[in-house]
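Data availability excerpt. The first of two example chains:
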Amino acid sequence: MKGSNKSLIRRNAVRGLIAMAVMLCALTGWAGAQSLNERKANPLQAGAAVPVLSKNNLPADVMQDLSAPAVNPAAAVTAAPRAGQASDTGSAIAAQRDVAAEVQKAKGKADPKADPKTVYLTFDDGPSNVTPEVLEVLRDEGVKATFFVLGQQAKSHPELINAIWEQGHAIGNHTYNHNYHDLYSGFTEFWKQIKQTEEAVREITGIRPRLVRAPGGTYGHFDATYFELLKEAGYTVMDWNVDSGDSRRKGVPAAEIIRESLSLQASRVILLLHDGAGHAESAKALPQIIARYKAAGYRFGVLDAAQEPVQFRVSASAAARIKPSDAWIASNITPNAGLFGPGKPLILEVGKQEVKLDPGEYRIRKGQYVVPLRAVIERLGGRVGWDTVNRSGSVWWNGREVSADAGNKRLTLISGDGTLVTRESDVELIGSALWLPLRDLLEESGHPLLEVKVTAEERRVKAL
């Protein structure tokens, strides 16, 4: 009996051991399968580096298309640990988020409250035969730029100055002839060239550029007098903080210009390029420069005189020159600032209508108010047509038709019975707009002047 009981106990013990072994094997197999699945879901192992965006070393395809990577929340991507940082799952997820945030930031989506990154494309030494290609690229890309033009070139290519202005780009003053010897021999010579170029641009566009860029930049060229007197005269001197290198030597290839133009860490980039003769490679590089800044989340802006300027410091090599006399400064510098002052609005009171022209929307010439035809008539409720062939415009207002002819300097009233009444008038085509004396326009349209007065707040013209 005892022997039988012992045999039964041994059999039960063996069966228990076998059952435990089977359960252990099953558990081991399940854990192995789970580990294999985790490895499939997370192919990047500890120590695998995640690329980080940095200046000038981005692969071309990444810079052109900085798409945010897809994130699988169930899979932890492990990055190489930083110094003093443990390589654990938490840091791996943080590293993945850092990379995604960096990419999103490069696309301008990281923080909608943050100031947008801005690049200002600037072109010096034009216009030239390179300028049309630059304008075409900018138009196709929907980008505006700032052109620092030479007065000599503006005189030779007024149609290109007009094209720059009509496309909505900013125009700056780059002196008249770019001759270093003349420009930096003394301030009065630099001043003379600034005023020459200013007048050349004004004759074409009707505006006076307030932005000034010194040929070669101010470093080594400007002393304190140049900076002080230009500021006192109402101008803003603008250098740059990124140089494309397209003028370092003759024939710089487009690939090098692209590489030198990229500064994807700065929040405000003022990029120096050239559209003067011999810079076809700069125009060739432009689409890629724009594409890469766009991909990095930058917007494109145009410079204006109210912005904080970027200026090089006065260097020891810029020897102090003789400062102009107080009498010369009083005659030239002091009154010049008035050209850019806020001015007064011009109020037109015509019958029962009243419209306002802000400073810059009208001019005073030989004691007469000169106004843009379209702006005035359309604000008064009339209609304007334009004849590009004959350089003339037609006005339909209050039952009258008046033709303004810039080519023949005259106004023609077409009466109801077809009779033509013509008078001489200083009609001028500035850019794409017809400008003419306000008195002539009102009288030909049947609204003779009743009163003209000037107060501390405004200028007012009252007509019948």
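And the second chain:
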Amino acid sequence: MKGTHDPIAADRRTGGAVRPVARDVSTGTPRSGAAVQLDGASLAIAGRQIWTDLSLTIARGEFLVVIGPNGAGKTSLLRVLLGLVPLVRGRALVHGEAPRRGNPAIGYIPQQRAFDPELPLRGRDLVGMGLDGHRWGISLRPGAQRTRVDGILDLVGARGYADAPIGRLSGGEQQRLRIAQALIGDPSLLLCDEPLLSLDLHSQAVVVELIARWSRERNATVIFVTHDVNPVLRAAHRILLLTGTRWGVDRPDRMLTTETLSSLYGLPVDVVRYRDRVAVLGIDVGGHDPVSHAEPGS
């Protein structure tokens, strides 16, 4: 069951922290339907406060989109859930347990990196590493593993180029293979770190639909970090905005408003809607705004 929300209210400073405008109310005890639970979670890295008092329950099967300016702690949130970074205060739970490295219930799509065109690695080898990452470069697999790899390649529509060198594939083709690698272990929680970077609009739409369809069919949870919310708006159940010590979480229609974003950022913000796209005017944080820096129709 999804968490409930406080009504949108004015910011209130408490001990130097700013309470969220729209915040998730957590009981402090694990919830049976929760994939992820954060209770008063605060994170600091190298002495710098990243976010403070984050309390959030993410339901099984929910598609949560995470946005915010550079340095707001979006990727760090994923690293906390992966068991790579400890909180300085509060608690994080993944399926009712403390985060730990190598949790097989979690699939992870990292930020896109270009492959060397001369890398002697086929697409199916990359996907197979999701099952046996210690066997780098092995081309022959037991029959059951090969069947499993082929099945996930079919799921993401990548069978046709799975035997090609991965460095020679397009960005969209490579990203389908990364998704396949993340899903081959049949995770119940998928963490996606900027999976749409460097993709054209068509490839963005394909990637979002692949992940959203998989989530619906498996009742699996997705936490999707992005710098542009527009391609993923239709898939999002809720949006979490991290702005440093301020944060807010709510449905897209309630989060992406002039009132809410102005309160979270503490400065005037205009939200403009054009057809099914959203643009935020009046913010220049980290070189671009937190919702979209693309022009309508681009």
